[in-house]
Design brief:
The protein is an alpha/beta fold.
């Protein structure tokens, strides 16, 4: 699906909203906050989705929930909501729409125990009648398009994603995303992209395949095996927010781009770091940013073929720093060190 073949594809749409390309950034708790989504969108991702937000927390005005729903200012604004009660899902959707959401995404795929233990996320795949009530309530509450993210099923004995997708489409959902694992697999093993094809066969609305998409080659394999219309990149974008955009560009045009230079990678992580501090404040932002710093260092070291000992030393220094100016100085020194490794 590259070059001339991709040029024959109709634009991917969610309702009347046209998506820039066929590579989406997955919603990831603690990762896809507004600064990370903004950067990934600027670097070419077709669509970015907010962190999962508990609908009742949003309705009750929890500050962190409001932060999770902050718009990026780039492309359509998608807010993902989770919940297990129709009242909270409907009210949460109304609040998100009033705050500027262009699309509401419903989470029925999160495998985390603290989410499924509250009968939200992928736990809803164990009771499709209840899941449909939540979907119907959300759709009835807003005028913007509603989408749905799910897994293959709760476990290998209940692969009911096709049925849920079919019923969701009938209720008015306008795009389905499927992670190619069951809830009980969490993130173990490999995503089964071929199993997603049964969902494609069950619906007429666009389908997005998700799980283990960390390169252009895997994106193409996932599209071919699943028959999906688009791919969703999750953990593969950690530390390399340019990846969804590069995959999207190559799918659309056939143009392959190398990883950004170390100088550009340094610019990206510095910008992201500063934006995280502004969003969360210095104390919380410093801690929150450490995972992004670690992922960025891992990617830079891999791109430069730096020795593992060099990476370990810089991770230790930067991820334990307590002031932002020290982080910036050490980042410059680390990337200079990585550049020396690349030139050696």
């Amino acid at each position: 699906m590259t070059g001339p073949e991709s040029s024959r594809l109709k634009p991917l749409k969610i309702g009347d909203i046209e998506i820039a390309n066929r590579v989406l950034l997955a919603p990831m708790s603690g990762v896809t906050d507004a600064p990370f989504r903004r950067m990934t969108a600027h670097l070419g991702a077709g669509l970015v989705v907010s962190e999962m937000t508990a609908s009742n927390d949003l309705v009750n005005g929890r500050p962190m929930s409001q932060l999770r729903c902050e718009a990026t200012g780039v492309g359509p604004h998608v807010v993902q909501l989770a919940g297990c009660e129709t009242h909270w899902m409907a009210e949460g959707a109304r609040i998100a729409e009033a705050a500027g959401a262009d699309i509401i995404d419903i989470n029925m795929g999160c495998p985390a125990r603290h989410v499924t233990g509250g009968q939200s996320g992928s736990a809803l795949m164990r009771d499709l009648d209840h899941a449909l009530k939540l979907i119907e309530a959300t759709i009835a509450a807003v005028k913007v398009p509603v989408t749905l993210k799910m897994r293959l099923g709760w476990d290998e004995r209940s692969l009911n994603a096709p049925e849920l997708a079919r019923r969701a489409e009938a209720a008015g959902v306008q795009l389905i995303s499927v992670h190619g694992r069951t809830r009980c697999q969490f993130y173990k093993g490999e995503a089964d992209w071929s199993a997603v094809r049964a969902v494609k066969d069950a619906i007429d609305i666009p389908l997005v395949v998700n799980g283990d998409i960390t390169s252009f080659e895997k994106a193409i394999a996932a599209l071919e095996m699943s028959g999906a219309d688009a791919v969703m990149v999750g953990r593969g974008a950690q530390g390399q927010p340019w990846l969804p955009g590069q995959i999207g560009l190559r799918i659309e045009t056939g143009k392959a781009e190398p990883a950004p230079t170390l100088a550009d990678q340094l610019k990206y992580i510095r910008t992201l770091y500063d934006e995280l501090l502004r969003l969360y404040g210095p104390r919380i932002g410093l801690r929150h940013a450490r995972k992004h710093l670690g992922w960025a260092l891992d990617v830079a070291a891999r791109c430069s073929c730096a020795p593992s000992a060099t990476l370990k030393a810089w991770r230790q220094k930067i991820l334990t720093a307590e002031d932002s100016s020290g982080v910036h100085r050490s980042l410059q020194d680390a990337y200079d060190d990585f550049a020396w490794s690349a030139a050696a």
